[in-house]
Amino acid sequence: MAAGHAPVSPAVKAGAGGGKAGTKAGAAKGAAKGAAKGATRPALSGKRKQVAPPPSPAPRRNKAVANAAAAAHGKTLARTLTAWSEEEIAEAFTRFEAQDPEPKGELNHTDAFTLLVAVVLSAQATDTGVNKATHGLFAAASTPAAMVTLGEEEVARHIRTLGLYRGKAKNVVELSRLLLERHAGVVPRDRAALEALPGVGRKTANVVLNIAFGVPTIAVDTHLFRVANRTGLAPGPTPLAVELGLEARIPDRFKLHAHHWLILHGRYICKATRPECGRCIIADLCRWPEKRF
Ligand code: SF4
After folding, report:
1. CATH second-level architecture of 63-104+218-279?
2. I need a surface site. Which of 69, 81, 216, 270 has the fewest CB within 10 A?
3. Residues contacting ligand 1 via CB (< 6 Å)
């Protein structure tokens, strides 16, 4: 995990929930007290002290609704003249860099092939879940030839905790076979060749090109898509539009690490349902109208 991007600790979570629970408990206690007073002193009912109503809870959204709201906000920003200036963009990435100079992805891998497999498995799955599955899988097979020998059934058995595992197992074995057939078992440093492999789309190719080969690509996942739209950094209706917007705006010197900084920011700070604006290092630059402090 990248330094400075620690996940919310259970204590913090408990604190947030505890506050709510405390409000409920306080209200119940107050109601019970009021009822007891009312029973013994009915004559005072007209002079009761005015009690302020409890604060209304912050709006809660599920992740899909939160991400859609971010996209809608991005659409609005794109029509208005509130785009980030070059100075603001440079300032944001200077802060990200100062906080975490060498951000890293969180998928366990040992080389370009195991990275490629891990990213293919990460669709609709968390990095933690993928790492648990690949622990056994890579112990059994960590090269294209070994993966083909292991076979679809065994690969599926290792990754059965992941969603869509049967289709993923089929893709992993087939892409291994194609790597042997077309690229002598070596992962190509080429977008078109990568995207020609089963289970490999633009985002996966971008991750592999960036991490394995040091190409300054920007892989737009759900976190980055949300952050780009919420902040107004690069609003766009699709991941590709956001990717191209970021590529056009981010200064070259920040491009190699930009997607890691933004993904980690979205994963741990600018979260879908409860963004932690109070801990956000770009809060003063962000255009999201629902910031919470
Ligand atoms: S201020 Fe809040 S909404 Fe804006 S980027 Fe930071 S965490 Fe996200």
Report:
1. Orthogonal Bundle (1.10)
2. 81
3. 230-231, 269-270, 275-277, 280, 282-283, 286, 288, 291
